[in-house]
Amino acid sequence: MSPQDSRLMPEEAWFTEVFDRHGSAFSLKVREKLLDVQSPYQHLEVYATETFGNLMVLDGCVMLTDRDNFLYHEMIAHPALFTHEAPKRVVIIGGGDCGTLKEVLRHPGVEHVTQIDIDEEVTKAAERFFPALVEANDDPRAELLFADGVKWVDEADDGSIDVLIIDSTDPVGPAEGLFKTDFLKRCHRILAPGGVMVQQSESPLYHSATIIRELRRDMREAGFDSVATLPFPQPVYPSGWWSVTLAGKACDVNQFREEAASNHAMPLSYYTVDAHRGALTLPPFMQKALD
Ligand code: AG3
């Protein structure tokens, strides 16, 4: 590439996501902008960074990097799948980068996974710039749809799903409705008894008393019998710390198949039976904020 190429960044170039409301920000040193598209739904950028591999950004918010996406993707998939007694039918709403799909497909008992993301551009970008995330996409059990996930849920049959994963952006703008009682009720309807829903649920440090607390209340209001919020590290997201919240339909999400979670053959990098157990024990400040 010639030095005149417009994609080349100035010598010291940083991508920064500012968390204005929290008075903080996160930056990565970037080498090159690989993609910049305005899809019908959002502004999608991909950068090559100095030390975190490729970086995907949606509407200015960091979605993932090569280096640390395993934390989020393992924690949104495996706790839910090891909580359900025998998950066969799995649905992912959002998740267009396919990182969650890849983790779900590691479970040999899973028979069918439908991923519904509204924006095909995200999947196209993953295919070009994040080949490791899409490597399981040819699995015959995987079905990729580009459509409105809320509409899809409304059209699904009662009790037809075992595990429902909401891999969304922050609950502002298009994803806001995915955190509300009305949508959670519709999710509850399509889950079979014993079903588990899991939702990405923002930062334990920044959002315990607000988004996480409200989501847990709304999940109970929607008819779920149990809820559990599991924190885990995520260096590239606001505060460097993130969470998922599980909800069970006739199922206790504070229990899981510990034997299966210790005796699997999946080559995982963060999730272990101990990490799962540990994440279920909330630090006192969170317990207090969530009570
Ligand atoms: N979805 C969660 C993104 C939330 C990040 N928020 C932020 N950077 N402000 C990630 C999708 C990965 N499959």
Quick one: overall form? globular
The CATH class label of the largest domain is: Alpha Beta
Cα separation of the termini: 56 Å
List the quaternary state of the chains.
Answer: single chain
As a percent range, the share of strand residues is 25-35%
Q: Mean pLDDT, nearest integer?
A: 96
Taken together, the total number of domains comes to: 2
Q: Please report the number of helical segments.
A: 9
CATH homologous superfamily label of the largest domain: Vaccinia Virus protein VP39
Q: Architecture of the largest domain, according to CATH?
A: 3-Layer(aba) Sandwich
In terms of per-residue confidence, which ranges show pLDDT below 50 for 5 or more consecutive residues?
A: none
The total of beta strands comes to 12
